[in-house]
Q: What sequence folds into this?
């Protein structure tokens, strides 16, 4: 169930000063564009680190994370307010069960989102997964079918467990490039983007390391092996997506119900009727009239 109250974003004060300054700067950019509210939807398979990522961004343990429970049992919205700005993050259960997309879980998520507007989608997976398969493509397709292809224009691919040592023959950056390419390819295929769509559009990728073993820089910020302070980096990417020209996604009843199969082809009905009238009925009427005109009249007539 959604949180009924918006709490003060006190967790931001727990970040190192350098991270705090960057986050407040990014919130200021949103407010300059008259955005006083931002809603982020977090989706992905179970056990990939969705809830931990929500906790890391908020700076508080707002969602329970357990080694014996890989995901929240139901959608949960966490709301935090700071200087007149409200941040909503919606954590969700995994949408895969038994090696298949769980349509029931997706339906529960959609109904939870009724009348909410999604500004940014975080599609979460793991960086330390070395390959993608058909299930990944099916997950992306299910999200597209549920919320429309346009939701990927508001999306960030978030890869967790980023504090890793790649195979001996690859540098960290080389491993990132190969993993990024594989994940983005499956997203583009699953979302059914055309080549011309991808010429002026690409989905950004963000790296996350939620564990306590994450390295820190001289400013006490959590950093990745490539030196990136990941919390301000992911929030900066979120801000860029929020400020893009593409429209946010309103989850209304029509979106939840999906297209009505009875409506399929209705636009062609008038054309079909016109075709039948001019190319079937009219020729038939002319043929009947000609036959009547040619018919020999009886002597009494």
A:
């Amino acid at each position: 169930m959604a949180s009924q109250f918006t709490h003060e974003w006190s967790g931001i004060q727990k970040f190192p000063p350098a991270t705090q300054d960057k986050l407040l700067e990014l919130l200021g950019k949103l407010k300059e564009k008259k955005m006083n509210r931002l809603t982020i939807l977090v989706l992905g398979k179970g056990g990939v680190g969705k809830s931990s990522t929500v906790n890391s961004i908020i700076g508080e343990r707002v969602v329970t994370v357990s080694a014996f429970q890989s995901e929240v049992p139901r959608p949960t919205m966490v709301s935090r307010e700071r200087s007149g700005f409200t941040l909503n993050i919606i954590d969700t259960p995994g949408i895969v069960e038994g090696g298949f997309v769980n349509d029931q879980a997706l339906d529960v998520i959609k109904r939870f989102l009724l009348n909410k507007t999604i500004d940014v989608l975080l599609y979460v997976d793991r960086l330390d997964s070395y390959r993608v398969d058909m299930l990944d493509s099916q997950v992306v397709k299910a999200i597209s079918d549920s919320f429309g292809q346009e939701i990927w224009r508001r999306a960030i691919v978030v890869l967790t467990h980023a504090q890793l040592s790649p195979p001996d023959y690859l540098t960290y950056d080389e491993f990132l490039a190969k993993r990024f390419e594989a994940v983005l390819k499956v997203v583009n295929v699953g979302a059914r983007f055309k080549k011309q769509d991808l010429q002026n559009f690409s989905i950004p990728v963000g790296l996350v390391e939620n564990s306590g073993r994450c390295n820190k820089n001289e400013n006490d910020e959590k950093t990745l092996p490539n030196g990136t302070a990941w919390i301000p980096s992911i929030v900066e990417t979120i801000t860029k997506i929020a400020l893009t020209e593409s429209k946010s996604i309103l989850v209304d009843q029509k979106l939840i119900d999906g297209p009505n199969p009875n409506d399929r082809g209705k636009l062609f009905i008038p054309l079909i009727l016109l075709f039948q009238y001019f190319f079937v009925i009219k020729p038939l009427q002319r043929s009947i009239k000609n036959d009547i005109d040619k018919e020999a009249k009886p002597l009494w007539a």
